[in-house]
Amino acid sequence: MKMTNFGVIAALGVLMTSTAPAAILAQEITVFCGEESGFSCTNIQPIADAFESANPGKTVNLEPVPYQAILESLPVQLASGEGPDIAFVNDLGGLSRYYLDLRPYVDGDYFDTEWSQTLQWLRGGVSNDAIGGMPAALTVNGGYVNVTLFEQAGVPVPEEGATWEEWAEATRKVAEATGTDFSMEMDRSGHRFASLAISYGAELVDDEGNPVVDDGLKAAIEQFVAWHKDGTMPMDLWGAVGGATHRELFSDFLNANTVLYFGGSWTLGQMDREVGDLFDWKVISAPCGPSSCTVMPGGGALVAFAHTQEPETVGAFLNFLAQPENLSQVLSAAVEIPSSKTLVEQGVPYPTASERTQEGLATFIAQVPKMDEAAFRFQGWRYQRAMMNALTTRISQVLNDELTVDAALERIKEDVNLAIEAAKAQ
Amino acid sequence: MADSSMTNQRQGLGSFLFARRGRKRLALSDILTYAYLLLGVVIMFGPVAWVVLSSFKTPASLQEFPPTVLPYATESVALDGFNAPLPLYDVTMEDGEIRRMAQVRRVGLNAQMVDPENPAAERVTVPAASTEPVRRVHFAVENYTKLLSNSGSDIWRYVFNSLFITVVATAITLIMNSMAAFALSKYRFRGSNAALMAILATLMIPATVVLVPTYLIVAQLGLVNNLWGVILPTVATPTGVFLLRQYMLTIPDELIEAARMDHASEWRIFWRIMLPLSAPALAVVAIFSILSRWNDFLLPLVVLSRRESFTLQLALASYQGENVIHYDQLLAMTTLTALPLAGAFIFLQRYITAGVASTGIK
Amino acid sequence: MTSSDRLSSAFGAMASLPARAVEPFMAGLQRIIGIKRMPWFFLVPNLVAVVLFCLLPVFINIFFSVTGSDRLYPSERPFIGGYNYQTLLDCSNYLDPSTCSRDLFWRAVGNSFVFVPLQVVAMVGIALLTAICLNGNIKGRGFFRGVFFFPVMLSPVVVALTWQWILQRTGALNGIFTSMGLESGAWLVDRNWAFFWSIFVTVWAHMGFYTIILLAGLQAIPRDVYEAAKMDSANHWRVFSRITVPLLQPVLLVVFVLAVIRSVQTFDELYVLTGGGPGSATTLIVQYIYETGFAVQPRNFGLAAAASLLLGLVLLVFTLLQMRLSRSSKNG
User: Fold this and answer.
1) Does B289 have pLDDT greater than 70?
2) Residue B209's domain is classified under what CATH number?
3) CA of A225: how far to CAs of A42, A194, A290, B10, C14, in Å?
4) What is the ipTM of this complex?
5) What's residue C197's pLDDT?
6) How far apart are CA A39 and CA A136, in angstroms?
7) Residue A98: which of A82, A109, A112 has the closest Cα?
8) What are the boundaries of each domain within chain A?
């Protein structure tokens, strides 16, 4: 009798000391968020503090994690049942199998009304009514141009509705006249390229979730390669790097080394700080292709994971954060575009942003109605990332004369199909 | 070691190309040798020295091309009516005169300047190409102070993590490897060959190749985000066992026999005889272990994902992934990361190189 | 006693304290299990670690390679047999990667086949040259030796970042060229230059290590041999080729094999320096494995495992070859 009692107490003692005491005594959750801009820990902190004061006994730990770590280590951690309670992710569909269904823990109807479409993206192609997380901001791809350089070159800035070719020609003239290093640059990202591709008529994915390689994609790739060959775009980004590596060189735009930079709305927050008065810039309307004037939508979400020990706290926090006044505060500080219905209608004030930045935001928002349906379908596709990786890898190969465009198209389709097969094998 | 006493062959590079038997070495061969060695100094030290020097440059001067050798900072002057001090430039005016002016802003190809003596006067717009910044040598120590202060970064925490992993892992490695080497070199027992083969076979397996299974095992042990998760997987280095065993084989068996006859326990033999005599090999294994642990990148990358458990290498690499790479901080951090081992090297060079040399001989 | 001896004896005294404390237990253990079983006691900790962290992963890898899906846990993976190997080795023309099913794999293999010989020859050649120079009667040998060994101490990340900083479009190398009036080069953007610099940077980082080993080998050649040669009026070139090289052979062999094994596993520096680019020009085999298993989504652990096992096989062949060669040269 004595021995078993002792055994039980000893076991309890071991249990108490080995598991994190916080998990038993106080309700504590960990959130992985971004480091610098956007939906970063810095911007979310005030809301976390408010939540903690309103809910004594609940603690929210915000941990800044580098983007690369989220991309590479988080999936591996999740696969072994480890990881944070909440994380800010960009690959909404790819990690969907690890999400916690928040419906029992949040105001389900509210979430449904605010984010009907993005919630669909979080489901990864499975049709149920799970709420995988709270969509954060809406990001929009788009081009930034250095208006001062245009002025100095005496070239008129192309109007809304100008095509990609017109932009290429205009920026070429400007670069020549002003001695700027590069005319156009685009992030080395399949997501950015998709904007170009869809405008040229590429479908990328069909209704059943199969990859599509069509003439539109071919035309886009050929145009892209042509720009690299004639020097409109530098080889440094797409040509010099291999594989699926994501690379951005926005600093080229900030230093006035390129006339046009095709990136997205997430760098708006930096513009006031980094450029300030150095030169005149603006965000351009989506350049048009033969098929449409589309730029890709995007955006991350704060998702909760099924392995969490604190589902109620997680739900409570995300519900709190999702309230319009709190969300508005974060978006305002981050200078990002809202994705929830209420805030899109109301608008979000950006007191810290300069007039130019506010104009830029308005331009980005104005692109949303013009987006082709293919863009939304692509964004919500579970295997979007596989396609984006294939695009960057294979296009780089074409740029380096390792593959012809036709061979690259075949390979892209093959790569994606192989990835789907590998993932589906059940 | 085979350093001082044996060396006297006049085997300079040029000597066998140019010298003839019987003559003392030609000055030319020596010149060639020294020239080659000096070139080596430039190529080996140059890049690193360049990084160190660049780490003292301000972000603005890092953008310049061609880069200047020494770090410069533009002089600036505080004027009434402007919030921040304005940088000073020497401007070549249209009439050829050179005036020193303060720059209000530079927009594309043109710069807006103002006379520092008369700030309220009209601003003059000049082509930026005709301006030369007024500079003096300035070491931007703030790059480092930002890193080293607590608000800028957690660098001391990273240093601690790296140090902890390195020291503990090396200690465990030394003990375990030497024990195994002792068993495999001084005893004949059934299964010893199989065990040796098993240990050597793992030499073929590069770490990246077994990364995922290793992670799986670490996760099962519950050591993710734990420094022990980085320490344990690579303590059983086969190279360590191999080197130590080779060395221990050369220790005469008679010593052990004599000790056994004196009723010494095997453990005592191990600690009192084998280890002290194997000191040179132990030093080599220790050096290899310290080198590879401090510089280890891939395993910590996968096992540690919380910033507070990052090692120095991880923290350095994570700087690269940002949108806008802050080169000033990146370079300062690179220098700091390279510093400890470089410093250790300068002091312990003789031991390190002697140790490495012995691996090839044995 | 020199200060270093004092230091090491103090350290030894400190370290032996726990050993002495443990001694009675060890002696007791020895009495219990008998002296014949003691070696197992010494061996077991290391063996356990080796089995758990080195051998077990290999078997898990084998299991991964014959199973599919992107799940991490072996129990969740369905068996697919030799499919991964089949798709890896499926090529109509092994010399032309674009005819292969997994063309990136064969490109990586092709690149490795070019990279390894070039890099090893460059590495060992330069190391030998440097060792010969250092072996001469020069002042400051210790200093020069340290200089060449210095980059070995730097981590791969530091090495890659250093050279990237120098080789980028606006870097120091182009700065020097421009101020001399020459054109800037696209060092890391052009295929061939990127390949060249990959070899250069890895040689730069590691040659000091081999230089030290070769230097020790040179210095271990006894004087008498050279004295005898001098007496026989042999000229220095003959001395080098007939005496030095043969006597250096065992060490040279060790250096060669070490260099090859390390060269095949090159990953860290190149990944940070060029990312495998441009295109796939500097993608080597380990990078392919890493990307397949980690960087692409969804992850293909099975394919990565299969590729890594093939790599392991190649390395095994090499090491066995070296062991056979060194054994025969020792006997010969």
Assistant:
1) yes
2) 1.10.3720.10
3) 40, 15, 17, 60, 67
4) 0.75
5) 93
6) 7
7) A82
8) 25-136+299-351, 140-298+357-424
Number of domains in chain C: 1
Of C16, C49, C230, the CB nearest to B235: C49
Q: What is the pLDDT of residues B3-51, one digit of tens each?
A: 443 344 444 544 444 444 444 555 677 788 888 888 988 999 888 888 8
Cβ–Cβ gap C69/A423 under 8 Å: yes
**Which chain A residues have a beta carbon less than 8 Å from that of B321?**
66-68
Sign of CA dihedral A398, A404, A405, A411: negative
pTM for the model: 0.78
What's the CA gap between B351 and B285, in Å, rounded? 12
Pick out chain C residues at pLDDT < 50: 1, 332
Asked if the structure places residue B283 within a domain, the reply is yes
Higher pLDDT, C163 or B77: C163
Lowest-pLDDT choice from B173-187, B264-278, C70-84, C217-231: C217-231
Q: Is residue C306 part of a domain?
A: yes
Predicted local confidence at residue B107, as pLDDT = 58
CATH for A25-136+299-351, options being 3.40.50.300, 2.60.40.10, 3.40.190.10, 3.30.70.2740: 3.40.190.10
CA distance A42 to chain B (A): 14
Which residues of A fall within a CB distance of 8 Å from B107? 148, 277-280
Q: Is residue B117 part of a domain?
A: yes
Contacts of C179 (CB under 8 A, 6+ apart): B66
The whole-number pLDDT of residue C195 equals: 92
C295: nearest CB among A243, A423, A425: A243
Substitution target in A70, A229, A246, A426 with the highest count of C β-carbons within 10 Å is A426
Query: In what order do the strands lie in the sheet containing A58-64?
Result: A58-64, A27-33, A86-89, A301-304, A133-135
In CATH, the number for domain A140-298+357-424 is 3.40.190.10
